[in-house]
Amino acid sequence: xxRLGEGDKRWIVEDRTDGTNVHNWHWAETNCLDWSRKFLEHxxxxxxILYGEGNLHIKINKVExxxxxxxxxxxxxxxxxxxxxxxxxxxxxxxxxxxGKSILKTEGSVEVPYISDENAGEDPDVRITIKDDGxxxxxxxxxxxxxxxPFVFAQIRAYVDAMAKGGPAKExxxxxxxSVKKPGSESAAAASNNAAAVAAGAAVKEVKKKVEKRKEGFxxxxxxxxxxxxxxxxxxxxxxxxRWRGFTQSNARISKEVGGEFSIFDGSVTxxxxxxxxxxxxxxxxxxxxxxxxxxxxxxLAFDEPESGTTVVKLTHTDVPxxxxxxxxxxxxxxxxxxxxxxxxxxxxxxxxGI
Length: 355
What we know:
- There is one protein chain.
- The chain is α+β, with helices and mostly antiparallel strands.
- Helix content is about 30%, strand content about 35%.
- The protein is built from 6 helices and 13 strands.
- The strands form 2 sheets. The protein has a 7-stranded antiparallel beta sheet. Strands 1, 2, 3, 4, 5 and 6 form a 6-stranded antiparallel beta sheet that branches.
- A hairpin with a 5-residue loop joins strand 4 (about 80-95) and strand 5 (about 100-115).
- Helix 1 (about 35-45) packs across helix 2.
């Protein structure tokens, strides 16, 4: 090892005019608190926990507070995350009677007082409260404990996984390594040309690598669901923005024309119609706002009516990315769950199309 003060170029903490962090040896720290807040807001907010099950409706509203610290250190390419966070989110809760009339509307909060890298492999403590302490309020609170608590834990695990991969510093870790050539007998011009050729070759390889990685980083979601209704009725529901608002309890704009655009789930999903055959086929381009820029997928819904009053819809959702822009690797799982629980099951529950 070089000794301090001897001027040996291997002494890596020497100031460099080119700004290069040799071998990524120096500590590079990224503050992740603001990124953590936005990441957790995306994972938690606007997500329905219950929609009609037992005539109860519960939806996480917003992140009320995120205090503490969160950072990622990188040393020699090694990711060292650190975080100690106090998270508080609010939720809206409503109970309805059998006729759909509201009995009680109230609010509650969920506090996770200690999310830390020290207990990254464990579910943290959680405190769930509700403003109404009457019997209906207690029922709503118990429903959140049963359904909402596991959901909150799952999203925290997604955050922990994202931090372990570098959080917002992940992209910086993918910067190409600088190749340093030892001095030799080459002339300065030849060395410069050789370096340029090496850099160009490396760039081509990097592009090919990214293209191959992208091809490998996509999945297809397939599903077959049966409904007690006519095919044209189900087709109309999926293409009608007012009915979308009804069964999702979220804002929606849907064009019924080929080439027309749509926006559903409060703008979380956008796209356009590629092919429409009434009562038979819907083909659309879908994009989730959390996906990396430029990524789109294709949704194909084929309707079959094997017998009068029974419809089978076959879903094929291609080009779903494995990871979103935040490094969350549960995109395919969440997409499948969204189709099943937030669309197909909700349509059955709201419109009475259950089998």
